Amino acid sequence: MKSATIITACLPLFDQIPFGLILLRKDLSIRFWNRVLEEWTGIKREDIEGKNLIDQYPLLNHPSVIARFPEVFDGRTPVFFSSQFHPHLIPSPLPDGTLRIQKGSVIPVCFNDEIHAILVIEDVTDLVRQVTAYRKMRDIARQELAERKKAEESLRIANTKLSLFSDITLLDIKNQITISLGLVSLIENDLNNQEGIRSTASSITNQLGNMEKSINLMREYEKLGMQPPQWYSMDKAILHASLLALSFKIDTDPTIEGLEVFSAPLFEHILANLLENAQEHAKSDSKIKISFRIEQESGILAIENSGTGVPRDRKKAIFMKGYGKKTKLGLYVSREILAMTGITIDETGEEGKGARFELTIPKEGYRFASASTSKNTEKQDYNLFHSQRK
Amino acid sequence: MDVDKESLDAITETINIGVGKSASLLNHMTGSHIRLRVPKLSVVRFKELEDSNWNHLEEEVMSTVMLEFKGNFSGVTAILFPPDSAASLVMLLSGENEPGPEMDAIRTETLKEVGNIIINSVMGSISNILSQHLSFSLPVYYEGKLSAVTGTRRNIEADGWVIVAQTHFQIESSNIEGKILILLEMGSLEHLIGSIKGAYN
Q: Which residue of B has its CA nearest to A124?
């Protein structure tokens, strides 16, 4: 059978297959253009057959395509074009206007002594879209899993700390009860001393007040185990802290304006504690100054005053467990809570000049309100914080 | 049959010419600077792949692109990578920024094209030496152990020869190791060595 006869016999078959098919001569002229390609491109075979493929599709004149045809015609090796490197071999629009994603194979065929190449083009749009959608779903699932693990770990740490803080507070309450019972004994032993009873009753009232504060503090601690960290507006946190500490001589530096800090719950209580400590080491008429600066991308929140300051040999000790009696939260507990979001705390003042507490905040743990106008939910904030800390 | 050092060197050079050509084409395709070389080549019996030196090929799951060839020189040529390395190679070559070590449908197709380019270049070099056309199948992708890959090829016998070319891909600052295996039917190695000696002498 002559070459032309063989090809003529094959053409109806080429029109039946569900792929685009081009029969090429060695000079890359198009010998046959099948019906699927007519449908995909809108180009009729009579308008394209006999023309050079590269002239019709100049983008194929790239080494990644054109340089591989000699492999087919001379080396007789099939060539494969993937959708990743050649997504639109023969650009063919879909009804929605996007282009079909294609992959192709070129197979050498010999009709008598004339070598031809059959370029078969498959539409893999659906497959690629499905894989792309699967990848997105997989990435979201992975991200959510990682975030959930981090959230669980964060809550686990919070619960451990909560247990520790509860122990400390319960010990305080127990001590207050012991003192109160001692005071009651004093009354019982001297029931005729009206003046003494009045004074002792006043002391008992103070102890009960302290117990109430301790119980309230325990309730606050419970937030650690239930609430994730969140962004605190410094303006509001300072106002809240000043009310808690009954400290109103505060000079807020303009650098604080719009500042937000990412912290575990009780941030206002921590600030109140620092205000109390600063007050303790201050001159009676001095103001407490609160300022913010950036050093090597970390944010430094400073709370300082002029006064006696903290003696050098006590700078570390004040952050130790059980140190100090006047503070409600305690610097040890404050340090532990701040550490949950990577914030460290140091006393950097000079003895004789004043106390200065500095909170060093990681770069992902502070921002200014202008950058956060979207008002993310707490969960989003929490996720953002952790994704930035990766 | 013993494969002398001269023949081994000649096969290595022939394969290096092929991988060099494919590196040039991959450079054009991806715009990355790719270096491809075969630092070590061995010719062993197929059954020796189970020995300690090669048994990782038998025991580990590999991402494999292979095609069959027929003629006076017949067999299967395969390029194999551990799946993680295959995914890394595809990501580096395609500039794909999707994390994850899986070889999904898009990546397997991409690896199939990369493998096709390398295998075609290598087999093109060998065809030139043999001075004859071979008939090739379309490349296929397979993920599994080598024994499963070759198991269905009835013409590959335990005493048949395998050319194992350790292949080193250097892309930007990454290094990826793969292996090119040419599993030969009986008589094909003798034919190749005869042709090589004729071509180089």
A: B106
Whether residues A143 and A74 fall in one domain = no
Which chain A residues touch B106 with a CB distance below 8 Å?
Answer: 83-84, 128, 131-132
Other C-beta atoms closer than 10 Å to the C-beta of A323 total 14
Q: What is the ipTM of this complex?
A: 0.87
Q: What is the DSSP string of B60-127?
A: S-EEEEEEEEESSS-EEEEEEE-HHHHHHHHHHHHT---------HHHHHHHHHHHHHHHHHHHHHHH
The whole-angstrom separation of Cα A118 and Cα A107 is 5
Tell me: do A382 and A259 sit in the same domain.
yes
Q: Residue A105 has which token pair?
A: 């194979």
Domain boundary among A123, A138, A157: A123
Question: Which residue range is the domain that position A93 belongs to?
Answer: 3-123
Q: Does B18 touch chain A (CB under 8 A)?
A: no
Contacts of A78 in chain B (CB under 8 A): 67, 116, 136-139
Q: Which residues of A touch B101 (CB under 8 A)?
A: none
- For the residues of A185-206, what is the DSSP string, one character each? HHHHHTTT-HHHHHHHHHHHHH
Strand boundaries in A318-363, DSSP class E: 344-347, 356-361
Which residues from A are below 8 Å from B105, CB to CB? 127-128, 131
Residue of B nearest to A129 (CA): B106
Chain A / chain B CB contacts < 8 angstroms: 79
Q: Are residues A111 and A135 in the same domain?
A: no
User: Is residue A85 within 8 angstroms of chain B, CB to CB?
Assistant: yes
Cβ contact, residue pair A78, B124, below 8 Å: no
Q: Which domains does chain B have, with CATH numbers?
A: 5-200 (3.40.1550.10)
Say yes or no for a CB contact (<8 Å) between B67 and A79. no
Q: What is the pLDDT along chain A (390 residues), one digit of tens a residue?
A: 555 666 777 788 889 999 999 999 999 999 999 999 999 999 999 999 999 999 999 999 988 899 999 889 987 889 999 999 999 999 999 999 999 999 999 999 987 778 999 999 999 999 999 998 998 898 899 888 987 887 777 777 777 777 777 887 888 889 889 998 998 888 888 888 888 888 888 888 888 888 887 887 777 777 777 777 889 999 999 999 988 888 778 889 999 999 999 988 889 988 998 888 877 777 667 788 999 999 999 999 999 888 878 888 888 878 876 565 444 567 888 888 888 888 999 998 888 888 899 999 999 889 998 644 444 444 444 444 445 444
